């Protein structure tokens, strides 16, 4: 949410945009520190109880943010949000996969994780619009009200599942050593770092182009095309995960290149936002499905590791983007993004045998048959 309202937050709190951007960084740091230890500590909890605990934490964090009048308190609330966010992110993928038959697990994750992408895609421009028309605090207040409604809905409708027994839990080192897990984690880190370097500082990136008043519409373009990407991912993921991940890296690299070379043309800025949305919309589902397939019985811990890498990318982007903005200026943000994506694409292409493989359902079915 802060990505769409950095200017308003910084002005109201009396700090620079780079300082306000650290509200994204500390959220990510909370998730980094909490995802693995909290997931391991609560792996025996019943899933619905854990889900409600995490969602309630968001309600508290966003309420504090809405009323905060200092950067220190805002950052503390965002850190708390990151802690429960890291736990929630690791929980959701396994939760969705347990609800459906094996041949629908990729599609189930695409549907479930679409929520996160819709939040980024539609919520951020909506927040930017609210911040421009009313005030940024109201956006966080509205999210608190929505969260309370969500808690009631989860209690009433979401099925419950048991946690893992103590004997079924695998050591953390076993998860790291599982073939395919390491390259997926590295790709997650670099892909998210590249994306968020642009995303967090999209407002200062557009300002020198004379598009400061179009941040919400550029983000809306990104968001609407992201919804198309979610749909395509849900249709194709169970058969073409590898192709989709290669395409995501290539499309985001192309968008960064267009922003670097043709940023003076507003139509091409919108075109790059569309390519960006097409690349990012299904990315979380692709990465989570890939690591769930690779990790097997260690899936919950692997998801926590992926969450850690995802949020490390977010945190690093806040710092790297802030330094770049201050030292080199906003045009350099897209060049850094492009530089990060080229090795990321190479790693995805290289992880053919383990990690980003094709026809994930057939591989999963075959392994179950062999067992």
From TrEMBL:
The chain crosses the membrane at residues 20-38, 50-67, 79-96, 108-130, 136-159, 180-206, 218-237, 244-262, 268-292, 304-327, 333-351. Residues 1-354 form the Major facilitator superfamily (MFS) profile domain. It is a multi-pass membrane protein. Signal peptide: none annotated. Keywords: Cell membrane, Membrane, Transmembrane, Transmembrane helix. It is found in: Cell membrane. InterPro entries: MFS, MFS_dom, MFS_Efflux_Transporters, MFS_trans_sf. Pfam families: MFS_1. The keyword Cell membrane applies. This is MFS transporter. It comes from Amycolatopsis minnesotensis.
